[in-house]
Known about the structure:
- By secondary structure, this protein is an alpha+beta fold.
- The protein has one domain: Pnp Oxidase, Chain A.
- The protein has three helices and eight strands; from the N terminus they run H-E-E-E-E-H-E-E-H-E-E.
- Strands 1, 2, 3, 4, 5, 6, 7 and 8 form an eight-stranded antiparallel beta sheet that branches.
- The relative contact order is 0.22.
Amino acid sequence: MSTVQEKALSILSNERIGTMSTVSDGKPYARYMTFHNEGFTLYTVTSKDSDKVHDLLQNPYTHILYGYENNGLLEEFLEIEATVSEYDDATIKEQFLQHFKDAYFGDPSEMLVLKVTPTCIRMMNKAGDQQEDVPLV
């Protein structure tokens, strides 16, 4: 595995918050989301009736900024282009339920797990270097 892949996986594993953008009526919308990763694949949860679900039904593509904490101007973060689909896996859903049921979901049946499959990941703000594509294989 290349160094850039290892760094990207480290950011995905150590950080949990990113901004996820969708498009509605031709306008971009971004929101902070909490993610779980398995390799380069990300998972997040939302309400089945949320605006982002309606947006993604019309356009399943997203753009995510992930891992920037503003600790320094040259801090590394990821720029992720991806497709999003509904994911029905009891194990992942249970993990999210344990962490977020009180904060977000009065009724667990309203929770929807989204699977985010990257098509492109770029490492950004590498100390003095240009952005670098992360091989996904």
